[in-house]
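Bench notes, afternoon.
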Amino acid sequence: MRRSFKFLMRPTAKQAVALTACLDDHRALYNGALEHRRTAYSQAGVTIRYGDQSVELKEIRAADPGGQGRWSFSSQQATLRRLDKAFAAFFRRFKAGDKPGYPRFKGRGWFDTVEWPRDGDGCQWDSQPHHPSTTYVRLQGVGHVRVHQHRLIWGRVKTISIKREGARWYVVLSCDDVPAQPLPQTGAVVGLDMGVASLVTTSDGDHLANPRHLETSAERLSAAQQDLARKKRGSERRRKAVVRVAAIHAKVRRQRLDGAHKAALGLARGYDVIVHEALRIANMTKAPIPKPDCAGGHLPNGAAAKSGLSKSILDAGWGVFLRILAHKAESAGRQLIAVNPRNTSRTCARCGHCAKENRPSQARFRCTTCGHQAHADVNAAVNILRAGLALRQGVQVV
């Protein structure tokens, strides 16, 4: 298996300046390569690819030895590959009829990661920590940067990336050949219903609370954003205000990740088979299509109410939780099944009757045919589990 390990870096003031310069130069390389492709196609109809730009990279480094020339050749190639992947994704979406999303130029706040494709080529991870929680990573042009290694690393380090989050720096190690750590079999199965009132409701009747981290920090975040709006663009005070806003968002993100890890680990330890809804979160949080009227205005389309629900869904972090749950289940040797959530909240888990009237309120379920009553989310979780087990048996028969 491949797994990533993320550690906090503790650079000196001089190293922090060098890391910032590394990001800026790689961002300039990305933007320059994008401009090269756009100009070549618009003026001459020529398509520039990664191989062409990789060959020109030697000339770029030779012409700017104090800038582009001081960084690793392999990390610059990775930046060019990043642009090539952006164009490949653009053409794939275009052919599929989706919103294309043409690659954009990266501003200072939109390019925060540099990757080294191979350990030992322009970077070196120190596998022998000098202290139980401290080790170093060597980066070309930066030096040996201290890293707070708070956990053991499994497998073989393949790629190394540095990432800036607000005022903090992190190193991300992508490791191959990470051994699985299967847990003892429990013989238990569970269905999961994702929600907003509760993050997860299980078919056993358990409710995992939704902490609503963004809502908790909304007052502080609003004050910080208002303070930012009053600052003059380009000033030092505005830069500090930007850092304060980013720090609040980073804390919310860390809290959400921590809660998702703990919830997913508990489920992976307790159940052999976990069934969840195959949610299309991007579609669920998409803004409603405007409805024009005959007078040049727009008809009511419920956008205000939909925005509140979308914000609550994103604050719950369904996508983060499901992604982490998939990783935990794979490592623990558990089976994870995704099922179509259609009508799971309207179908009676006892008799199978499906009707909108079966759910008179958000939390209450009462079947209009057999009279079965239960918590609406628990009833949905039971239906999800039943659908997952049926799908599992069907796969085994085939």
